[in-house]
Amino acid sequence: MEEIGHNAVSLVGRVSGEVVERELPSGDRLTTFRLVVPRSDGDEGRARVDTIDVACWSGRTRRVAGRVGEGTVVAVEGALRRRFFATGGARGSRYEVKAQRLRRLPGS
Q1: 63-88 in b/e burial notation, b at 16+ Cβ within 10 A?
Q2: What residues contact residue 69 under an 8 Å CB cut-off, 6+ apart?
Q3: Residue 40: is its pLDDT beyond 90?
Q4: Would you give the DSSP letter of residue 7?
Q5: Cβ count within 10 A of residue 41
Q6: pLDDT at position 43, please?
Q7: Which of 34, 73, 74, 87 could form a disulfide linkage to 16, CB 3.0–4.6 angstroms apart?
Q8: 9-104: CATH topology
Q9: Where are the domains of the chain?
Q10: Number of CB atoms found within 10 A of residue 12's CB
């Protein structure tokens, strides 16, 4: 049976909060930040946003993320991922965008 599916995300928004770089126990490096993206729900006059976690694993996306700060406008292209984790004996999960391309845009 042929697999059918496509997982591609393209977002433009402002970086919110601190950009965090860390080294994992495996030795891999990861840079993460939150992206605030305006949303149009058809409610005239009501501004709504989505706040989306972005994970930068490649050296290229980590370098770009390291040069942005809160309020910077960026374009992110990547894929939606569900990450599983354990905290204090409890298991949890969250969705994030794994950035495959990250660009700083003018106006920030």
Answers
A1: ebbeebeeebbbebebeeeeeeeeee
A2: 15, 19
A3: no
A4: -
A5: 7
A6: 63
A7: 34
A8: OB fold (Dihydrolipoamide Acetyltransferase, E2P) (2.40.50)
A9: 9-104
A10: 13
